[in-house]
Amino acid sequence: MNECKGLSIVTLAIVVGSYGVALANPLVVNAKPTNAIPTNDGQIFFDDFSYGDIESFNANGWRVRTETGHPGIVGATWSGVGISFHPELKDTSRGAIRMSSITAGEGSNTRHTQFCHMRKYLNGTYAARVFFRDTPTYGPDGDEVIQTFYTISPLAFPMDLSYSEADFEYLPNGGWGSDSSPAMWTTTWETFQLAPWAKVNEYTRKEGSYAGWRILVMTVKAEEVNYYVDGQLISTHSDKVAPEVPMSINFNLWFMPEGADGSIGPVDSDELREYQQDIDWVYHLADKVISPQQVLTAVANLQTQGVKHVDGVAESDPVLPSPCGL
Predict the structure, then answer these.
(1) CA 246 → CA 29, 119, 261, distances in Å?
(2) The predicted structure's pLDDT at residue 32
(3) pLDDT value at 21 more than 60
(4) Residue 135 CB coordination number (10 Å)
(5) How far apart are CA 28 and CA 86, in angstroms?
(6) How far is it, in rounded angstroms, from Cα 261 to Cα 56?
């Protein structure tokens, strides 16, 4: 949910230039199972997204956003129409879930997509295997589109200091005041307000194409938040912005208003276009930090045992409301 324009009360920024993400992947995606990280070692949440219908998806605690509003194009819908399941996908264990979002540059013809899991996650290790795309499935290219994996709590009021959010956001066509080069943004939020725009966060921009399957790992502690892509540490954010309250796990796919309406960037078209993002699996180990390679080992253990979904992360007491929105 990064926004880099307007007033910034405190923003600690690290902007890194050309980044060779086309180098050989240091992780073996299909790690061999081992007993190094037992599947019952702590509170684990795992989902292989091997669903055949939305009812089974919802039954395991996932919600699809239908609430309109920030971020994205004003007047756009957020809808489950963009959610689909693909057991036939190659290079996955049992298929993947897909988000498909469309726009023709205005709110009335834009559909954003988001899905969320319960608000009960805080410290520990988060991971997902995600397929990013640099180009639309159809229609003209160039929209400032955001493809994500993140955690978030509700903003109780503007500049709420207990607000928590930690983001992976891939921008294949640039955005937030940068040029049109593709880049991965990682952002950890202390707080913000929408109007007038103000924020307290730390962010890092890693330039380069991240198209294709990527292993995203985020480790959250009170002292720091670390972000890894394909086993490589790409950013560390400080205790000044580290999450403080339970968050939900989220994925969304949306368009920046300025990048879709032709006011900036190369797209000035009323032709419909669609972008997609796939997620193979998601994993969380509560209150423990493990390495990206250990994450893959843990996931391999679960898949070898035939586990499609497990949720051993305790809910907050009392149980917190889990809105699927901002």
Answers:
(1) 29, 6, 36
(2) 54
(3) no
(4) 14
(5) 23
(6) 37
